[in-house]
Design goal:
- It contains eleven helices and eight strands.
- The longest helix has 17 residues.
- Strand 1, helix 2 and strand 2 form a beta-alpha-beta unit.
- It is an alpha/beta fold.
- Helix 2 packs across helix 4.
- It has an eight-stranded parallel β-barrel with strand order 1-2-3-4-5-6-7-8, surrounded by six helices.
- The structure holds 3-methyl-2-oxobutanoic acid.
- The site of 3-methyl-2-oxobutanoic acid (KIV) has 12 residues, from strand 6.
């Protein structure tokens, strides 16, 4: 499979759905890449599913770089995107400096930024000028959990605002936009209003692609289960059953038997 680029992904709009999932380490990235996932996202959701934080806010740029370097080693064809974490885009200079540093140190293909306010739009413009691909993230923006007062789904009455944000991001030079947590009709209209691909999470089937958090999709994380998460596997139960068997066998001295031991003859 040939390595995805910004052009291959842009060309998929209205032709083929874009598949995306989060990855935070080499092993999971290698599995997803080998089955042909189009795009991998090192999401700041790693704060919750990898670090056990109650939200994404504590995640740092250094931590994003640490995880992205691991994911990059597992990829041969997927497009690699990294989140700019909370507090890394407070000014235009901060956003540009942090994005350039992430790309330089990890070899990722793009950065993703939440919101579409003037600072973010200016960062997107400057990054485009500096040769950095950026992806917008609007609708439910987890980095705004405190000001939203929880994780709130956007209603159809929000459609004009979200459409205007998506159009502004496209004009500023974003290559794609993630639409999170909104009624399907809203995401469908936004998708029609822009010529860049939309990637949905909790935004219905009309988006140009979909993204899910690895630990949600495969049943490893159960602290929170939003309606939009489909469990494609229940790895937590499988791992717990296997771990119980291992514990029992060690306690009973039936592991390691001769099959798993080195002998002098
Ligand atoms: O951090 C993340 O995993 C994300 C996805 C939910 C899109 O931003």
């Amino acid at each position: 499979m040939k390595k995805h680029t910004v052009s291959t992904l842009l060309n998929m709009k209205n032709k083929e759905k874009i598949t995306s999932m989060t990855a935070y380490d080499y092993t999971s990235a290698k599995i997803l890449d080998s089955v042909g996932i189009d795009m991998l996202l090192v999401g700041d959701s790693l704060g919750m599913v990898m670090q056990g934080q109650s939200d994404t806010l504590p995640v740092t740029v250094d931590e994003m770089i640490y995880h992205t370097k691991m994911v990059k080693r597992g990829i041969s064809q997927a497009f690699l995107v990294v989140d700019l974490p909370f507090g890394s885009c407070d000014t235009v200079d901060d956003g540009v400096r942090n994005a350039v540093r992430i790309i330089k140190e990890t070899g990722a293909d793009a950065v993703k930024l939440e919101s579409a306010d003037e600072v973010i739009l200016e960062i997107v413009r400057k990054l485009r000028l500096r040769g950095v691909n950026s992806i917008g993230h609007i609708g439910l923006q987890p980095q705004y959990v405190n000001t939203m007062g929880g994780y709130k789904i956007n209603k159809y009455s929000d459609v004009e605002r979200i459409k205007a944000e998506a159009i502004a991001l496209e004009k500023a030079g974003a290559m794609m936009v993630v639409l999170e947590g909104m009624v399907s009709e809203c995401a469908a209209e936004v998708t029609k209003a822009v010529s860049i691909p939309t990637i949905g999470i909790g935004a219905g089937v009309e988006c140009d692609g979909q993204v899910l958090v690895f630990h949600d999709a495969f049943g490893l994380y159960s602290d929170m289960l939003p309606k939009f998460v489909k469990r494609y596997a229940n790895l937590k139960e499988i791992v717990a059953a296997a771990a119980t068997e291992y514990i029992n066998e060690v306690k009973a001295s039936t592991f390691p038997n001769d099959d798993y031991s080195y002998k002098s003859k």
